[in-house]
Amino acid sequence: MKLLWGGSPEPPHNKTLVRYRTHACPVADKFFEKNGFLRIEKPFSPTGTPIDYLQPKPLFRMITLNNVSKYYPAGFGKTYVLRNVNLTIDQGEFVSIMGPSGSGKSTLLHILGLLEEPSEGEYLFLDEPVHRLSEKKRTELHRNHIGFVFQAYHLIDELTVYENIETPLLYKGVSTSERKSRVADVLDRFGIVAKKDLFPTQLSGGQQQLVGIARALVAQPKVIFADEPTGNLHSEQAREIMELFQKLNQSDGVTIVQVTHSETNAEYGNRTVKLRDGWLEPKEAVV
């Protein structure tokens, strides 16, 4: 066994993400750690001795769900969409939520993204008890820390690409000069500078989704929630979008939680959570 990437400064992108670091070898720390994760396989010290002493690296707990349920009134009873969901997500993770249609995936994502409230249970986001917050406080939390990417893009047809991307910054009260700087940065980063004066209807599906991701990222959120982000795209566009998400996660350390039907899309993340009939399956698959 040896270092997964042979001591080169950059690891390959298809290796398992392991949330541990070694304290037995400072050199290993230097090469292994990347955005809070390690890509390791029983590493060796410079003397050739296996390093067996691994210790968890403390990670910031971003999301905690305790016995969260969601139901809707149905006659004299209740129809449950989610039942007793317990889930934790750490900063820097890329989590995929999977399950058949009607399993509660989108409802769970909307609760995580503060678009819906749970009927029962506790939700902690950045140590804030979301289930106890006022509507005003929840709105502030969403505006300042959360980005959302939708399957149907949800761009405003009457606004240009530039104006769509700028909108979250207007809501946050960012200064004019700062808005111009941030929008220019994401336009350049995503290669859509030439499209900035076009309207959404003049763009392809892939281009519209790029704008949607740029809009989510420009406000510098701590987490991006994506609801079937490639559902309306053909396979090549879908691959490009998922590679972009993976890069945002691995290079920028952005926490990403996506709902997807696609096993291929799920493989871009480092953990898969599966729902069935509103229940979280007992074992979470690690990709």
Number of spatially distinct domains:
2
Percentage of residues in DSSP E strands: 15-25%
Helix content: 25-40%
Q: Would you state the CATH class of the largest domain?
A: Alpha Beta
- The CATH homologous superfamily of the largest domain is called P-loop containing nucleotide triphosphate hydrolases
Point out poorly predicted stretches: 1-58
Mind describing the biggest β-sheet?
6 strands, mixed
| Total of DSSP H or I helical runs spanning 4+ residues | 8
Report the average pLDDT across residues. 80
Order of helices and strands: EHEEEEHEEHEHHHEHEHEE
Structure description:
With 287 residues, the chain is an alpha/beta fold. Helices cover 31% and strands 24% of the residues. The protein is built from eight helices and twelve strands. The strands form three sheets. A six-stranded mixed sheet has the order 8-9-10-5-11-12, with helices on both faces. It has a four-stranded antiparallel sheet with strand order 4-3-6-7. A hairpin with a 2-residue loop joins strand 11 (271-276) and strand 12 (279-280). The radius of gyration is 20 Å and the shape is globular.
Summarize the helices and strands and which ones pair or pack.
Blueprint lengths: L19 E3 L3 H7 L21 E3 L4 E14 L2 E14 L3 E5 L6 H8 L7 E6 L2 E2 L5 H11 E5 L10 H12 L3 H14 L15 H14 L4 E5 L7 H18 L2 E5 L3 H4 L4 E6 L2 E2 L7
Helix pairs in contact: 4-5, 4-6, 5-6
What is this entry, summarized?
The protein has helices spanning 26-32, 105-112, 135-145, 161-172, 176-189, 205-218, 235-252, 263-266; strands spanning 20-22, 54-56, 61-74, 77-90, 94-98, 120-125, 128-129, 146-150, 223-227, 255-259, 271-276, 279-280. With 287 residues, it is an alpha/beta fold.
